[in-house]
Every structure is written in C-alpha cells, then in structure tokens.
Amino acid sequence: MEVINETKREDNQLLVITHLSQLLTFITGFGGLVVPLIIWATQKNDVNGIDEHGKAIINFQISLIILAIICIPLAFIVVGFIGWVILGILGFVMPIVNAINASNNAPIHYPLSFQFLK
To answer: Are 53 and 18 in contact (CB under 8 A)?
Structure first.
C-alpha cells in the first residue's frame, strides 16, 4: 500500500467566502448554516485552515439558532425582543469582521458561540 503525501493549499478567498456566506441567512433564512456546512464538509481536507474556520462558523450558526429559540418565551417580557436585536446585529457584523480577519490571517472569534464541534 502506497502512502501519498497530500498537502493542503492556502486559499484565503475561500475562507472569506465561507464567512460571508453566513449572510445568506438574511436573504434565505437558512442558507447561513447550509452553505458554510457544505463548503466546510467538502473542503476541510483540501484547504489549509478551513477545518478551524468551518467549525467556528457552524458552532456560531447553531448557537444563534438556539439563542433565538430561547428568546421566544422571553419575548413575552420584552427581553426576548432585545435578545433578537442583539443576535441579529451579531449575526450580521461578526461574519464580516471574521471575513476580514481571515483575509489578513488574523485569529477569528465568534462571541456567544457554544462549542458543538471541536
């Protein structure tokens, strides 16, 4: 059996696209989870850094969904509406910030993100 040494390629543009694809949530409602999941699953063995970035994105998107669901009963006491606004702002701003960080090879960070995938 022959072992082939495969090297991963550097592709900062794909990392940026993966982060920005989360913004599809504001257009389709669910694309912000599906598209990064597909990119991560298909490219994690080929692109350097996509595994770390993809896991962070999936963790962030699942965390946003869970936190938005938690805000539903809290909406009866007005706190939920404030929570939805905060989640909406974070869901819009953080992918852009982390896309810039990915293009500059800086570390990425998503606040309020639970670690489902490690």
So the answer is: yes
